[in-house]
C-alpha cells in the first residue's frame, strides 16, 4: 500500500505566522487548502511530517511504499507524472529545491541526501512567503473552480439577483442570494454550500465564498478573494484571503491581505496595502530577522486568533503573530 506524506521543510518558518498553528499543507490558497488540492489530485488521503508540537494533531502515517512531498508545493499534472515515475530511493528536485522523494520509511527518508536525484524542469508553484498566498490566489482560485465544478450543475440563481456571465458562476446547494450583483466577466464566482450573500452585495470574480460563510448587506468585493468557511465579512475587500472561521463583519478596507483562522476585525478596521511613495513594500520576516521585499502591494498578514479594536488602522505590510490584540492608542 502507498502513502503520500506532505512534509514541512525548514523553510516553513518563512511562512510566519500561518505555519505556527498548522502544517503548511493546511494553509488555504485558492478555494482549497494545499492538502485538499493534493488529495483531490491523488484521489487519496495524505498524512503529515511536521514539527513535534503539531504532530499529535497531524500525525505521520507510513506504509511499505511512501512518497514524501514538499508541503508547500502545489500539485499539477506534469508534477504528478514526474512524481509517479520515481523509484524507491529517488528524489525530485528543481535546481536546489527539494520537491519529493520515494522510499520505504521515515528512517530511509532521513538519509535521502544519498538518493538518486532527478531534475524537474517544468513550471510549478511553491508557496515560500506569506504574500505568495495572495500572489498566486487568482491562478489557484480559477484552477480550483474548474476542479470543483467539473461535470456538475450549479443551483439556479433567482431573478432578484443581477448577474453578469452566469456560466462562470457556481452556486452550491443551500446557498442564499437575494438582491445581489455578481460580475463574473473577470473571473469565476463560487458560492459554497449554505453560504449567505445578503442583499445589496456587489461582488466580482474571481471569488470564492466557502461553506456557511456570510457576506453582509452592501459588501463590496473587487475580485481575487477567498472567503474561507464559516466566516462573516462586510465592507470593502480586494485580493485577500480570509482563511476561515474569522470575522470582518463591518465597514473598513482589506486589501492584498491574508487573515488567519478565528480572527476578528473590529468595526471600521482598515489596512493599507500601498506605500505613499509607491515603492516596494518591505515585510518583516521573523525567521530571518530582517525585512523582505513583498512587491508593490501588500496588506496585513494576520496570525490565527488575533483581533483588532474598532477603527484600528493597520500599516502597509504589517505582520502579526498569533493571539494578538491590536488597538488604537
- Unreliable segments of 5+ consecutive residues: none
Count of discrete domains: 2
Question: How many alpha or pi helices?
Answer: 6
Largest sheet: 7 strands, parallel
Average pLDDT, all residues: 96
What is the CATH topology assignment of the largest domain?
UDP N-Acetylglucosamine Acyltransferase, domain 1
Please tell me what the overall shape is.
globular
CATH architecture group name of the largest domain: 3 Solenoid
Query: Mind telling me the C-alpha Rg?
Result: 20 Å
Sheet/helix structural class: alpha/beta
What is the CA–CA distance across the termini? 59 Å
Q: How big a fraction of the residues is strand?
A: 25-35%
Describe this structure in words.
The chain has 329 residues and is of the alpha/beta class. It folds into 2 domains: 2-128, Spore Coat Polysaccharide Biosynthesis Protein SpsA, Chain A; 134-326, UDP N-Acetylglucosamine Acyltransferase, domain 1 (3 Solenoid), CATH 2.160.10. Helices cover 13% and strands 31% of the residues. The protein has helices at residues 34-42, 52-55, 77-84, 106-110, 132-135, 137-149, and strands at 2-7, 47-49, 65-70, 73-74, 90-94, 97-103, 116-119, 125-126, 162-164, 169-171, 176-177, 181-183, 189-191, 196-197, 202-204, 207-209, 214-215, 220-221, 225-227, 232-233, 236-238, 241-244, 247-248, 253-255, 258-261, 264-265, 270-271, 282-285, 290-293, 301-302, 307-308, 313-314, 325-326. The strands form 8 sheets. Strands 10-13-16-19-22-25-30 form a 7-stranded parallel β-sheet, with helices on one face. Strands 2-1-3-6-5-7 form a 6-stranded mixed β-sheet. A 6-stranded parallel β-sheet has the order 9-12-15-18-21-24, with no helix packed on it. Strand 1 (2-7), helix 1 and strand 2 (47-49) form a beta-alpha-beta unit. The longest helix is centred in the middle third of the chain and has 13 residues, at 137-149. It is globular and about 60 Å long. The model has no long low-confidence stretch (mean pLDDT 96).
